[in-house]
Each structure stands twice: as C-alpha cells, then as structure tokens.
Amino acid sequence: ITMIKNHLSKLMGEKRITITEVAKSTGMSASTISNLYNEKVKRLDFDTLEKLCEFFNCNIEDIIEYIPDKK
Question: Is there a contact between 1 and 70 (Cβ–Cβ < 8 Å)?
Fold first, then answer.
C-alpha cells in the first residue's frame, strides 16, 4: 500500500513539546495539531507545513514521508 507517513508525533516527542506549545507558537489551533499528531488528517496545507517546518527548524521530509507501494 502506498502511503504518506506523518512524523509530527515523533518530532514532538524527541523535543518534548506539547500540542499546546506547538499551537501557541505557530498560531494554529490545538485541534489541528492534535489531529496531525494522532494521524487523523487526510490532507495537509502548504501553510501548515511551512509553519511546522519553521517551528521545528526542519525540512518537509522530517514531517512527512512518502512510502511507495512495494510490488
């Protein structure tokens, strides 16, 4: 199965940062961060990715990863 893997919970765990802290620092809602953290989103806006990359000082690949179907 081809899939996109979300690594936000891993990033937050490594840095010991809470959903509330990310929300306050990025201006995004806590529910948005929570849904991303719990991998409950079907789509991700460029604006959201940009804010997360800026906050974590990382690249997009550190937040999301494309895992191709292995046939």
Answer: no
